[in-house]
Design goal:
heterodimer; A: 442 residues; mainly alpha; 0% strand; globular; B: 405 residues; alpha+beta; MetI-like fold; 2 domains; two-stranded antiparallel ribbon; 12 helices
Chain lengths: 442, 405
C-alpha cells in the first residue's frame, strides 16, 4: 500500500517581482478590486485638486500689479500675488525703518555664523558654542535690534558677546582645518605648548583680557539709532519671541522638571502646581493675563512694555510644557543609571549633569523639537493681543487701500512659510535622533 | 597576622555615626525647603502687595460684586436667552462657558471620527492612500491653527452665496440653508410628553446592556455565538420610537425662513462658528491620526499572525485582537488631545465667535474692569475642565491595567 506520486504537482507562478514597475503597481496600488477603485478615485481627486490649485496660484496668478483692481483686470480668477509681493518687506520686517534693515539681517547672519560650528565636523567645544549663543547672543542682538544709548552693563555684555563670537569663529576655523582647538593652536604658535598648565592658563586669560579691552574700547564709539519695539513686526518679531521662548524654555523646563521630581516635598509640590497651572489653561488666557495683570504686579512707576509682557508669558508657558517632556525623559532612564552614577561617587548634580540629563534629553529630542515647533506656531497668538507679528501683518494687507479685501493670498503665503520652517525643523529633529541614537534598537 | 590587620582596618574604616549639622541630609533638606518656601512666599507677597497697592491707587476694588452688574452688550451667539439691559455679567460668564463647551464638544466628536479615519488610511496597504494621508497629516500639523482658522473664516466668506441665494443642503426641501451668514437648520421644539420617549430610551439602553451581558455569559459557558449588534440596535430604536408615536409625536420643528434680509425661526450657526469648528476638527484630526497609527503599530505583529493562524477572519482579528490591544495606547493621547481641543477653542476670539475668552476675558474685561477676578475665573474654568479630563483619564488607565493583568 504505497502511494507513489507519478505526476508533478503543478508549478506555482513566481511571485510578482516587487522591484519591477508593474509588480510594484500591482502590489501597492491595485492589490484588490476595492483598492484599485480607491486608487483611481484618489488619483482623479488629486488631479482636479492640483489642477485647480495650479490654475489659481500659478498659471492664472497675477504677479505684477499696482492694486487689487488691476489684478482683477488682468485675471479675475487667479491669485493676486502682487499684493503679497508689495508687502514682502512688511511681512518680514514689520514697520522697522527701511534704512535700518541691515541690522536685522546682520543679527540673523551673526546668529548663523555663531551656530555654524555646531554642524561642522572636527570642531571641539560644541557645548561652549551652544551655551555662549544662549547666554551672550541675546545681548548683542538685542542691542542691534533696538539700538539707542548703551548702559555700562550693556556695554560689558556686548563686548563679551563680540569676544565670544570671535573666539567661537576662530575655534571653528582652527578645528575645521585640523589644527585642534583654538587654545592649543595659540599655545603651539607661541611655542608654549609644553609649558606647565598654570602658565598656559594665564597666557590664554591674558590674551582674552586684551581682546576684551580692545573690543570694549572699540564698541564705545559704536552707536546705532534707537528703534522702539512698536516698530518691530512681521516674521522678525515672530522669530524674536519664539527665539527667546525656545532659549529660555529649555533651562526653565529642566529646572521645573527636577523640581517636580525632587524628594523635597515643598519643592516638588510648588513645581507641580506651577506646571499644572500653566498646562491646563490655553496660551491666549496667559497672554491676556500678561497684558492685563502684569501692570498690576509691578510697583508703580515701573513700566513693562507689551512685548516684554508677552515674552515673559510665552517663556513661562513653554517652560512648563518642556518640563513635562523632560520629566518623561527622566522617568524613562533606568534606575541602574542613577545607582551607577552614585556608585562612582557622583553627587546629585554630578549624576544629573553628566549621566542622567544627557540621556534623558537625547531620548526626548523629537518631543522637545516638536514642542519648539508648537511654540513657533503658537507665537501667532500674539496677533490677538495686538502685536504686529507675521499673522497680523498678513491680515493687515486686506485693510490696505490698494489691496483692500485681499484675504486668501497672504494667508496662503503665511501658511507655506510656516510649513517650510516647521517641516524642516521636524525633519532635522528626526535626523538628529537617528544620528545620536546609541541604544539597542531591534 | 595579615588577616587580623585587615579586620582591624575595616573596623576602623567604618565611620562613627557623628551628627554633623552642616552635612546632614535631613538638615539640608529642611533648610532648602525653607529657603524655597521663603523665596516663593516673598515673590507672592511682592506681587500681591503690588497688586493691592495698584488697585487702591487706581480707585478699584477687589471682589466678585461686578457679577451682579448689568452687562451693557449682547453676545453674538448664545445657547440660552440673554436680555440686554437686564442680565448681568454672571450670565455672560455662563453663556461663554456654554459656547466654549458647545463648540468643543462638536469638535471633539468630529476630530475623533476624522482622526480615526485618517489614521486607518495611513495604515492602508495602498501606497497612494497611505501617502495622501501622510501628506494631509504633515501639511496640517505644520501650519499654525490660528492661520487655519482665519483661512477658513475668509474662505467661507469668499465662497458662500448671499442670503437670497442660500445654498439648500436638504436638496430642495429648504430645511438646511447655508449662506454667507452661516448655517441655518430646523430646531426641535419639545412637546409636553417628550420626556416619556427619553424614559423609554433609557429603559432600552439598560435592557440592551443586560442583553449583552447575558449573551457574553452564554458564549463563555456554551461557546454559542449569539448576535448582539442587530438586536441591540433594534431595541434602542424600536422601543423609544413606539413610545414616541404612542404619545402622539410630541416634537415639532421650527424651520428657518428667509424674511427680507434676515432669517426667522430655526437655529443658526454663525460663520465664525463653522470656520472654527472646521479648523479645530481638521487640525486635531491630524494629531489623532498619528496617535491612532502609533497605537495600531504598537501591537505586536505576532498577535495578528497568531490570530489569523487560529482561524479568525480578517475583520475578527481587527475587532478582537488588534483594536483591544491598540486602544490602551490610543486612548491616553486621544484624551489629552480632547483637552487641547477645549483649550484651542479659545482661538475663537480671533474671528469673533463668542466663546468664554472672547466674551468674558475680552469684552467683559474691557467694559467691567476687574482684571484679576475675570482672568482668575476664566483660568479656573479651564483648570476645572482639565482636572475633570485627567481624572477620567486616570480612571481609564486604572481600568485598562486591571484588564491587562
Amino acid at each position: 500500500m504505497e502511494y507513489v506520486r507519478t505526476k508533478d504537482t503543478p508549478t506555482r507562478k513566481p511571485p510578482l517581482n516587487e522591484s519591477s514597475l508593474l509588480g510594484w503597481l500591482k502590489i501597492n496600488l491595485f492589490d484588490t478590486l476595492f483598492s484599485s477603485v480607491l486608487t483611481i478615485l484618489v488619483l482623479i481627486a488629486i488631479f482636479f485638486a492640483v489642477k485647480s490649485l495650479w490654475i489659481w496660484g500659478i498659471s492664472d496668478g497675477v504677479w505684477i500689479a499696482e492694486t487689487r483692481r488691476e489684478c482683477f483686470k488682468i485675471n479675475i480668477d487667479g491669485a493676486c500675488w502682487a499684493g503679497v509681493i508689495a508687502w514682502l518687506d512688511n511681512i518680514f520686517y514689520g514697520r522697522y525703518p527701511r534704512e535700518e534693515l541691515w541690522r536685522i539681517n546682520l543679527g540673523g547672519l551673526l546668529l548663523i555664523l555663531w551656530m555654524l560650528p555646531l554642524w561642522l565636523p572636527r570642531v571641539r567645544g560644541k557645548i561652549f558654542v551652544g551655551l555662549s549663543v544662549v547666554a551672550l547672543y541675546p545681548f548683542l542682538a538685542g542691542y542691534l535690534f533696538s539700538g539707542g544709548e548703551k548702559g555700562i552693563f550693556m556695554q560689558v555684555m556686548i563686548t563679551a558677546a563680540i569676544v565670544g563670537l570671535a573666539v567661537n569663529v576662530a575655534n571653528a576655523v582652527t578645528g575645521y582645518f585640523n589644527r585642534g582647538s583654538l587654545s592649543s593652536f595659540i599655545l603651539r604658535k607661541i611655542g608654549k605648548s609644553d609649558a606647565p598648565e598654570k602658565q598656559q592658563r594665564n597666557i590664554l586669560l591674558a590674551i582674552l583680557l586684551i581682546a576684551f579691552v580692545a573690543v570694549f574700547v572699540w564698541q564705545m564709539g559704536w552707536v546705532v539709532e534707537n528703534v522702539t519695539w512698536t516698530k518691530w513686526g512681521g516674521l522678525f518679531l515672530t522669530f524674536v519671541i519664539a527665539g527667546i521662548g525656545i532659549a529660555s524654555a529649555l533651562p526653565g523646563g529642566i529646572i521645573l522638571a527636577l523640581g517636580r521630581r525632587s524628594k523635597l516635598p515643598v519643592v516638588s509640590v510648588l513645581s507641580t502646581a506651577f506646571i499644572e497651572l500653566f498646562r491646563s489653561v490655553p496660551l491666549i488666557t496667559v497672554l491676556f493675563m500678561a497684558t492685563t495683570m502684569f501692570p498690576l504686579f509691578v510697583p508703580e512707576g515701573f513700566v513693562l512694555n507689551k512685548l516684554v509682557q508677552v515674552i515673559i508669558a510665552v517663556c513661562l508657558f513653554n517652560a512648563c510644557y518642556i518640563a513635562e517632556i523632560v520629566r518623561a525623559g527622566l522617568q524613562a532612564i533606568p534606575k541602574g543609571q542613577y545607582e551607577g552614577a552614585h556608585t562612582i561617587g557622583l553627587g546629585y548634580w554630578g549624576a544629573m549633569g553628566l549621566i542622567i540629563m544627557p540621556q534623558a534629553l537625547k531620548h526626548m529630542i523629537p518631543n522637545i523639537v516638536g514642542s519648539f515647533i508648537g511654540l513657533l506656531k503658537d507665537t501667532t497668538l500674539v496677533s490677538i493681543i495686538g502685536l504686529f507679528d507675521i499673522l497680523n501683518i498678513l491680515r493687515a494687507i486686506s485693510k490696505d487701500t490698494p489691496w483692500i479685501g485681499l484675504h486668501k493670498e497672504p494667508l496662503v503665503f503665511g501658511a507655506i512659510l510656516f510649513f517650510i520652517i516647521c517641516f524642516a525643523m521636524s525633519k532635522y529633529s528626526r535626523h538628529l535622533e537617528a544620528k545620536l541614537a546609541t541604544g539597542h534598537k531591534n | 597576622m595579615a588577616i587580623n590587620d585587615n579586620r582591624k582596618e575595616t573596623v576602623r574604616a567604618k565611620p562613627a555615626e557623628k551628627f554633623n549639622f552642616f552635612h546632614d541630609e535631613r538638615v539640608r533638606s529642611v533648610f532648602y525647603q525653607i529657603l524655597t518656601a521663603l523665596a516663593v512666599g516673598w515673590v507672592a507677597w511682592f506681587l500681591i502687595s503690588n497688586t493691592s497697592d495698584n488697585l487702591e491707587k487706581r480707585g478699584l476694588s477687589f471682589g466678585l460684586g461686578f457679577l451682579d452688574v448689568v452687562a451693557p452688550f449682547d453676545p453674538d451667539f448664545k445657547l440660552i436667552s440673554f436680555a440686554v439691559g437686564e442680565d448681568t455679567y454672571s450670565r455672560i460668564f455662563l453663556i461663554g462657558i456654554l459656547n466654549t463647551l458647545y463648540v468643543s464638544f462638536l469638535a471633539i466628536v468630529g476630530t475623533t471620527f476624522l482622526g480615526f479615519f485618517v489614521g486607518i488610511m495611513r495604515l492602508s496597504k495602498n501606497w497612494l492612500i497611505a501617502n495622501v494621508s501622510l501628506a494631509y497629516v504633515e501639511i496640517i500639523r505644520n501650519i499654525p491653527l490660528l492661520i487655519q482658522i482665519i483661512f477658513w473664516y475668509s474662505v467661507i466668506y469668499a465662497v458662500l452665496p448671499r442670503i437670497k441665494q442660500s445654498l439648500d443642503l436638504s436638496l430642495g426641501a429648504e430645511l438646511v440653508l447655508l449662506n454667507i451668514r452661516g448655517l441655518y437648520v430646523p430646531w426641535p421644539i419639545a412637546g409636553g410628553l417628550l420626556w416619556m420617549t427619553f424614559v423609554a430610551l433609557a429603559i432600552a439602553a439598560i435592557a440592551a446592556c443586560i442583553y449583552r451581558k447575558w449573551a457574553q455569559k452564554r458564549q463563555d459557558n456554551t461557546g454559542q455565538n449569539i448576535p448582539t449588534f442587530l438586536p441591540i440596535v433594534a431595541m434602542i430604536i424600536i422601543l423609544p420610537g413606539l413610545v414616541f408615536l404612542m404619545t402622539g409625536s410630541p416634537l415639532t420643528w421650527d424651520i428657518p425662513k428667509i424674511d427680507g434680509f434676515n432669517f426667522t425661526g430655526g437655529a443658526s450657526l454663525p460663520r465664525a462658528f463653522i470656520a472654527l469648528l472646521a479648523a479645530l476638527i481638521i487640525y486635531h484630526s491630524a494629531y489623532l491620526a498619528e496617535a491612532v497609527r502609533a497605537g495600531v503599530l504598537s501591537v505586536n505583529k505576532g498577535q495578528t499572525e497568531a490570530a489569523l493562524a487560529s482561524g479568525l477572519r480578517q475583520n475578527q482579528v481587527l475587532r478582537m485582537v488588534v483594536i483591544p490591544q491598540a486602544m490602551p495606547a490610543i486612548v491616553p493621547p486621544m484624551i489629552s488631545l480632547w483637552m487641547n481641543v477645549v483649550k484651542n477653542s479659545s482661538l475663537a476670539t480671533a474671528i469673533g465667535y463668542a466663546d468664554l475668552v472672547a466674551v468674558y476675558m475680552q469684552t467683559s474685561l474691557n467694559t467691567a474692569g476687574h482684571a484679576v477676578e475675570i482672568v482668575g475665573m476664566t483660568m479656573g474654568f479651564y483648570m476645572v475642565v482639565s482636572l475633570t479630563i485627567s481624572f477620567l483619564l486616570n480612571i481609564y488607565n486604572k481600568r485598562v491595567q486591571l484588564v491587562e493583568r
